[in-house]
Design brief:
By secondary structure, the protein is of the alpha+beta class. The protein has 25 helices and 13 strands. The longest helix has 34 residues.
Length: 679
Amino acid sequence: MAGKEAKDQYCDATETTEPTLRRFGGRMKVLLTVAAGGVLLSSIIWLRNTDHSSSEASAQQAKPATVQVADKKPGATTQQQSQTPRQSVTNTILGPADLNASPKLPEKPRAVGQEHKQLSVFAVVNGEQISRKFIGQQTVKRFGGEVLESIINKKLIELECTRLGILVTDKHVDMEIEVIAKKFGLSVDRWLDLLQNERDIPIQKYREEIIWPALALRQMATKQIQVSPEELSKAYESEFGPKVKVRVITVTNLEKAQQLLKAAKANPDDFGSLAKDHSEDPTSASARGLIPAIRKHGGEESIELAAFSLEPGEISDIVKVANQYLILKCEKRIAPTYVAPQFLADAKQRLHDQIRDANMQREASKIFKELKEKAKVVNVYVQPELGKQMPGVVGLVNNYKITTRDLTDECIMRHGASVLEGEINRKLLKQALVKAEKKVTNDDLNREIARAAESYGFLKANGDPDLRAWVDKVTENDNVTLDIYVQDAVWPSVALEKLAIDSVKISQEDLEKGFESNYGQRVKVLAIVLQNQRQANMVWELAKNNPSDYFFGQLAEQYSVEPVSRENSGQVPPIRRHGGQPQLEDEAFRLSKGELSSIVAIGGKFIILRCVGHTEPVVTDLADVKTELLKELQDRKTRTAMNRTFAELVEASEVVNFLRPIKAASGVTPSAQPPMFQK
């Protein structure tokens, strides 16, 4: 077990299935294990986080796949299917009768405009067509329920705007998007690109479902919005007033909280370690209990009262918040921020605008709630019997009819491009399977689902994978049917693995490197990560002239741009061999205890290390862990091979995507594209 624990602690930042599944145009949030061993390695070495720290604001949920259900009737929808009992799952699960193939991500996504209505064929994949009708069915099946709801909501607002004489134009929407983009320091194009590509929010959806309704409701609420002097005073004190920097331990058991409080007061210096080892809040625990400085009027009053009653070094009594028990330790009290007189008016105006906007949002929500309560809305889409009486109609809003065609057009407008990409990708996979004379069987699908269930801890009492519980969890969480889950997540993974597996070989060198990486010696270091060479030179000189772990930790707290090292006085996970950063590894392994590294430049960052010791290998004989190691390496290499295989399929394909043009294998944009889509 010691070897296993050590391996887990130092495992690579390996690719999960998420990047693969996102290629298949759907909405699955739960990731499926794809490699032969079925183990998802999720640990990320600390340095990798430094490369992405600047994009925290852009990181959001990924949406994996969506696949055709060929054995469903045209026009069937996710919502309609969800009304029928879920397929029973025991120790196996049936896959779809036919699977529409897939892969292909275009270089630069763009919104699908009204021109899609002019096309009967949306794509051609190595000579095989994908029709508009088919994509319409697929988008409605996947997104029909939520799109219809947004259509209904927007229609309610439109009708009220008409009654009140309120007009919100495209120009108003454009202006609002420009204002929002400026708040983030971005151009409009970059902001929309971020929404589309990094947050998976289609531009059309953003404009019609988010910005337009917000502007309309804002106009309805404007006359009722006021900012009181008390609100402004509290906001000012919250932003510029005193703060308290604390560490916190959070648990859900009172008896445990009492024990931790006793231990903390007995040894206040151990508070950070107690937080790291026992706090049930993973974010603060990883930072040894440190949380953002507590300010007045910022949230939970009981926490604020406890924090502001403490002096540096003092520990609070237990603070109960909902079902949690918190213990605070004051690190330091932070004096109010001085605002120069010439900036005071601007600061208060900014706070005034923030309060006004928040009040307006609350009032707008209230207005919208009242609109829904007063409206006569009939959702025909989720009532099959009512649908028989009203053919071609999916909804009524105060007697205004929303037709099946309206819904299909809107679904394509918002989601057609991404669903089409998924269908292209699946078609590529299916074509490749035929060429390789390979098939995906129901047994293959069942094994993959069982593997996923096991990897996520869905087990029966006898230790076997609990497929029923797993599938129920996935389908419920993601609001999809069983066949969509199988086709969107399971089948693409199995298909791609079948195509890639023959290229996976494990050499003796792989075994030896894997053994050293997972079980070998580590270098324990303190680290500072900086953004530019000049600052790195300065910090390095300071560290050299003050050779102590404490001073280095203080430098890390003050200068490091990497969260783990900054919040933990330079402490980062020990560095191992073959972890993905050879330059950094070589530098770390040449250091003796107490020695300072040179400045290591990696990925636009500049890293300084101070060695605090070395660990001993936890396993000395490869034979003791060879079976486990082979399984891990097989998984890792399979994932790599799957990504490589998919990239090769895309590179070798001839694809004409009429919604999002992409280059053919020749490197020339196909001339078959209509002029409106040519670059």
